[in-house]
Amino acid sequence: MKVVIVGGVAGGATAAARIRRLNEQAEIVVFERSGYISYANCGLPYYIGDVITDRSDLTLQTPESFFSRFHVNMKVRHEVTAIHPEKKEVTVKNLETGEEFEESYDKLILSPGAKPTQPRLPGVGLDKLFTLRTVEDTFCIKDYINANHPKSAVLAGGGFIGLELAENLRELGMDVTIVQRPKQLMNPFDADMASFIHNEMRKHGVKLELGHTVEGFEERDGGVDVLLKDEQPLHADMVILAIGVSPETTLAKDAGLELGIKGSIVVNDRMETSISDIYAVGDAVQVKHFVTGQDDLISLAGPANKQGRIAADNICGGDSHYAGSQGSSVIKIFGMTAATTGVNETNARKTGLDVDTVILSPMSHAGYYPGGKVMTMKVVFEKATYRLLGAQIIGYEGVDKRIDVLATAIRAGMKATELKDLDLAYAPPYSSAKDPVNMAGFMVENIANGVLKQWHLEDADRLPRDGSVTLLDTRTVEEFAHGHIDGFYNIPVDELRERLGELDKRKPVYVICQSGLRSYIACRILAGNGFDCYNFSGGFRFYDAVTNDRCLIESATACGMDRA
Asked: Per the entry, which co-factors are needed (predicted)?
């Protein structure tokens, strides 16, 4: 059996190694048009920022090391230019010599990945304008920085690559601005959670120009003007396009393979395409979202590796199936960690799911043990069934392990109420006896049992201000004086029992505090005394920002306002 693989990196290289482990006699040929067959794609921004200093550390395998270990013929700087399914051949061009030749196959795996989205805008070809996708792109950017010592950069796009680049360029001392059309960074997060990310970026000097449309680029004064619709241009010494990726599927289209979302390759759960003996894996393929069951594009290294393994298993006579992607991801943002899994509230509602959320702000470990830091968790679940749908966590320590627990719970089909039953490891330096994941489960159980009724950020503007309801802030007098929402009356929770006479039992009470805990306790006091009460999901506090003349709103939901 002869297997030809188009593209290396996560999917292709994984498939090649797996085929060899399952079949010692198979002939395996990999064609990779770049100069690198397996590299740490996610580490590229950190090389630019001098966190990773040795170029060779980015290369996980070389053609020589791969052949030595697996006897796989790795052909770098070779581009497959056509697929001929009727002949079971591919046309290959040697990019160094220009030679073209035909290569036969019994089985073909396509792992072409994705390409940076290149807008058709004036000035896209300028030599001070870059994209970041490959090792070559990385070296090009780094060499430019080393040679020209730019003082400023504009990044077009606020996804994973954009944020990681922004951090690393700031660490090099550059003035960095992120500009994009959406009004929030990191679309996998809901707007309320994304505002934490906005605050962290601004705190470290990254300028955010959100909600602006880029219309082109012009060279000026030795740098580049980024032209914005109805706004003054942004000027910088260099510009990096990080506005996302699109599936690299020209080969598949020309060969007549069935295509899906944004031209991606349609595959079944065995990673088989619409043409016999051709498989496809990685960023180029359309997948099923594990939570919603809908077709989706999820460009992450973990799914690509799993898909490569599944394709290899099936080529070698196995029966492996891909159950879908759920988008589990984590990112470092200066000192902060942000992570997500499953579907967020915004996208869940778009798919027609009737959802609710709980938001909590627990400590990363036991409060009495030094060094604990607050994290904010948002857990999304289906109202009728309490099926766990997704989670987002932002904090400083312990974020990654909690998101992995929640990702596992989603994969296991657990209900959000069952999170309370998880038996999780505890020691004071690492967690609390009631782990944050357990706490989320307790909160959902309270909702399920009618112990807790909530109101959410989107309800704030709809709350009557005509005296027909009571708006109650249960923080301390000092906290309330520092900043509060208009119309709310302040009774600190520890004084509430003695001051119940100030409230009218005939009116519903909407309660708020900093994190949601004191307001929940207040709700239990009120409910126990015959009041109809609703707890704000999350909480809020005001704090002084970088300058004394402005204030940002932060909350366990960041109030979703992210305003100055």
From this structure: FAD
Per-residue confidence (pLDDT) for residue 329, from 0 to 100:
96
Domain 335-450, architecture per CATH: 3-Layer(bba) Sandwich (3.50)
The listed CATH number (3.50.7.10, 1.10.3720.10, 3.50.50.60, 3.40.50.10490) that belongs to domain 2-113+246-316: 3.50.50.60
Give the whole-angstrom CA distance, residue 460 versus residue 118: 40
Structure confidence at residue 54 (pLDDT): 86
pLDDT in tens, 173-202: 999 999 999 999 999 999 999 999 999 999
Q: What residues contact residue 307 under an 8 Å CB cut-off, 6+ apart?
A: 11, 271, 281, 282, 285, 322
| Stretch 208-230: mean pLDDT | 93
Q: How far apart are the first and last CA of the chain?
A: 64
* Distance between CA atoms of residues 303 and 6, nearest Å: 18
C-alpha distances in Å from residue 488, one per residue of 6, 46, 360, 511, 512: 62, 46, 21, 9, 9
- Assign domain 455-548 to its CATH architecture: 3-Layer(aba) Sandwich (3.40)
How far does Cα 472 stand from its chain's mean position? Answer: 35
Look up tokens 């010494």; give the residue: 237
**What is the share, in percent, of the chain residues with pLDDT greater than 90?**
81
Q: Please name the residue ranges forming H helices in 358-412.
A: 399-411
How is the chain split into domains, by residue range? 2-113+246-316, 129-243, 335-450, 455-548
Per-residue pLDDT tens for 427-448?
999 999 999 999 999 999 999 9
Q: Directed axis angle between helix 399-411 and helix 436-448, to 10°?
A: 50
- SS3 per-residue string spanning 167-205: HHHHHCCCEEEEEECCCCCCCCCCHHHHHHHHHHHHHCC
Q: Are 353 and 386 in contact (CB under 8 A)?
A: no
- According to DSSP, the residues that pair with 259 across neighbouring strands are 265
Nearest alpha-carbon partner for 376 in 537, 510, 493, 511: 537
Topology agreement, domain 2-113+246-316 and domain 455-548: no
Q: Is pLDDT above 80 for 521?
A: yes
Residues labelled catalytic: 42
* Cβ count near 22 (within 10 Å): 14
Strands (E), 388-479: 388-395, 454-455, 470-473
Class of the CATH domain delimited by 129-243? alpha beta
63, pLDDT greater than 90: no
Q: What is the mean pLDDT of the chain?
A: 91
Smallest CA-to-CA distance from 314 within 44, 41, 109 is with 109
> What pTM, to 2 d.p., does this model score?
0.91
